[in-house]
Amino acid sequence: MTGALIPLLLGIPLAGSVALLLAPPRLGDRVAVRLGVVTTGVTALLACWVVAVEPSTDVAWVPSLGLRLHLGVDGISSPLVLLTAGLTLLCTVYSLKVLPEAGRPRGLIGLLLLLEVGMLGTFVALDLLLFFVFFEVVLVPMWFVIAQWGDTSDAVARVRAANTFILYTLLGSAVMLLGILLVGFKAGTFDIEALTERGGGGLSHGVQVLAFAALALGFAVKTPMWPLHSWLPDAHTAAPTVGSVLLAGVLLKMGTYGLIRIAVPLVPDGARTLAPWLGAFAVVGILYGALACLVQRDLKRLIAFSSVGHMGFVLLGIATLTPVGLNGALFANVAHGLITGLLFFLAGAIKDRHHTALLDELGGGLYERLPRLGGLLAFAAIASLGLPGLAGFWGEMLTLLGAFDPAAGLDRGYYLVLMALAGIGVVLTTTYLVVLLRRVAQGTTSERWREAVLMRDATPLELAVWSPVVLLVVTLGLWPALLLDVTEPVVRRMIGA
Amino acid sequence: MTVSGVQSIDYVAITPPLVVALAGLAVLVLDTFLGTQRKQVTGWVTLAGLAAATATLLPLTDHSRRTFCVPGEGLALPSCSYVVDSLTLAFQVLVLLGALVVVLLSIDTVTEARLPAGEYYFLLLMSVAGALTLAAARDVLTLVVALEVVSLPAFALVALPRYDGRASEAALKLFLVSVVSTAVTLFGLSLVYGVTGAVHLDRIATALGDPATRSSALVLGVGLAIAGFAFKVAAVPFHFWAPDTYEGAPVPVAAYLSVVSKAAGFVGLAVLLTQGFAPYADVWAPVIAVLAALSMTVGNLVALRQRQAVRLLAWSSIAQSGYMLVPLGAAGKGDVAAVLPATVAYVLAYAVMNLGAFAVVTLVGRHRPANRLEDYRGLGRTEPLSAFALAFALACLAGLPPGLLGLFAKVVVFQAPVSQGTGWLAIVMAVNVVIGLYYYLSWAASLYVRSPLGGPAGAESASRPPSYRISWSDGLAIGITLGAALWLSVVPRMVLDALG
């Protein structure tokens, strides 16, 4: 009976999405959003159930390709499944009150549900081709979300941002598909579990290096890794709030998840050869992201660049190829999903109220003007810079710890340098976030906003949406074992440590 | 098989082309007796003829049949000119069903464009009969004759709108390129025949298999023989006719050329190469690989710049030909027979998705004769189902989910170069898939774009364009192709395992 659970987990949002997208126009927007809330709510409950019983499904689909409908969850995927289901639910609930400026919430919710199918599918797929299919499913809905519901002030820019996003990802995906096919055809199976068990057995060193390079390139575009990140800031700046939240909160994780689930365990030999390169790019990303943040003028753009830096830590953790590093990467993954999701919610709320996200135009005085929003922004920023006691801390610390003692066969001295550079990145991250708070939150409200007496602070619904995230950030910060105990055994089994 | 020199013919095996040819003659005769008001009857008779021919395929499915055989000498098996096996059947089904959709699309076109109905359907059916024969032909003479039977009616079909100068130009281009490439093919085949003394593919393969006979004449012959087929499938550099011809011809005829006639060309090429010239795979595979890489790259790059729907589909179908050639191009280093299913699978999938796109393009062309890409803007609002059908067909052609049919077909094609060690071809194809994605997706996206760039959202809602009146035949054609594409995306087995 449990075999039907995961197909149901994907089927419910899919059905909701089809219903919303095909529904006749006379279906009211309110009803549509409520339908979205119900669908994502049921999906979230189902996700909890799935994580609790860890069922699996394995049915033949396309025999000539050896493609199987092989779905399952374990310690690595279950936190991400919960994150996805949770954030999507919060996004639809948020849409109850905060309707997109571009109108037509029905279509937006329908696309969000379609996104959810792709994201959940990516995390539960245990067949390489199936993984690829789900990985690609998110592209088209995300394109529409950015191009149609994005920044209403500049239609040309938002379409360009959407195009850049989809072109970058497609280019990466094509390379990744080559990697997948190379592994699949050479090893004779596309089953991720079987291939993990084999641990690269039967694949020559050359094939492994080639396959890892292709796979990592595809995932690196999505993550995004410096220098393949340049689609991200535009996409985030242009996307509507819920789009940004899901983009930063979940979509980026699909890249790092792919690295951990597929690239590292399936072609470990190739991973060992190329891990130093991955680490180098990761550290450049950390430093570059932090430095770029220092000069940003747009709040959403700044958060986007901070993502580049944070994902750099995740990549560095992966590049160490140690259980500590990988656990740190997984932890940082989830923490970043929560914190940056919250940051984009807040940035969206600020932008909705001021109709601009430019730091100069916003000026200072958020504490004075909108104390609840300002307080939450401060909380999220502090969590983002990795204050001990909040979720952002553990991922970065474990990552650095992993780099202090990388896997056997990797040059320790080199990794120590990487660690030191990443440490500088931590300092820079703290700097730009504190500067951000200084510029936006503190100080006095400028004349421009003093007039707008009717500006509302965070509404009860907004607080209801954000508080679970805040709660989780604190909980994971104080009790990291909650997550690490789940991921640890799977990581050890996977990399055979 | 032979009794005192008289061949016994397996009439069951050759029923499908016979039925189609007879239906063609019937349509031609019938047309002269019909008043101008009742010309539509010819269309229905054509549909009935194609349906009947499809039904006659059923008894052929149980085991393979061979007819028109020549006894072998000594212990050799008899060689047959007409063979019905799973390959033949797969293509005959494709040809018949594809022609069925084309006829459905033609019914309104013939009336609107005031084409002579009898001649139109007669020519179409004759070409279909040739395509059916081509799928079963297993000697070079039958192959060439069948290829010409496919092509000759096509020239006339393209030229049928006599008042339209573009159609005449299109037909002339098609004719000239076709004649030249057929001549080259005949020259190549005569070289092969001259050295081997055989016309049957299996005997040619046996003769070529002997290393002692390997000569430069044979290498030249094999290379030249490819040309005629490369023209038929519109592979670069034999593609110049395609865009102008597609644009100048009535849209259903363009659909016919790009799907049915192209598929016939592919089956001929695949049979010739993998059965007749198999021992020379090291010679023709690199040639095909270069043709494939060129077709993909040129087709996709030029398609990027197109502003007219039929021209875009023409260039895209050139690129798609490249994908179909990839498995054959990868055959040189490994098992020649192993790459055949990949090409077959892609041709079948391509037929479904390309016909789907052409069905909607035909519909839009009835209301917007210029058929520019701009005319599709916002189609999703006025014609949600047709727009969805087109978007889905384009997603399939691009190979992006939800168009799983196209994705799986591409994976199957990738398999050949990746596992046979022609990595460069796989990389060229990967790059091309991405280029293709761009124009397919931007077209598909424009269907759902609400406001023109820069304009206020919803401003044009007052001037909502009227929705089209869709006739039953157009609706059926769109429905069949969309249904097939959706079904095959979920259960791709039927296409991918067509050879059993």
What do these coordinates show?
The complex is a heterodimer of chains A (497) and B (500). Chain A has 497 residues and is an all-alpha fold. Chain A has two domains: 1-137; 138-495, no CATH class. In chain A, 77% of the residues lie in helices and 3% in strands. Chain A has 22 helices and two strands. Chain A has helices spanning 5-22, 29-53, 77-97, 105-124, 128-137, 139-149, 155-187, 192-198, 205-222, 231-238, 241-266, 268-294, 299-320, 323-354, 359-362, 366-369, 371-384, 391-404, 412-441, 447-450, 460-478, 481-495; strands spanning 56-62, 67-72. Chain A has a two-stranded antiparallel sheet with strand order 1-2. By secondary structure, chain B is mostly helical. Chain B has one domain (11-452, 466-496). Chain B has helices spanning 15-33, 40-55, 86-112, 117-136, 140-159, 165-196, 201-209, 216-232, 241-248, 251-276, 281-304, 309-329, 340-367, 379-382, 384-398, 404-420, 423-446, 472-490, 493-496; strands at residues 2-3, 6-7, 65-70, 79-84. In chain B, helix 8 (216-232) runs antiparallel to helix 10 (251-276). The longest helix of chain B is centred in the middle third of the chain and has 32 residues, at 165-196. The two termini of chain B are 28 Å apart. The chains are: A mainly alpha (497), B mainly alpha (500). Chains A and B meet through helix 5, helix 6 and helix 7 of A and helix 16 and helix 17 of B.
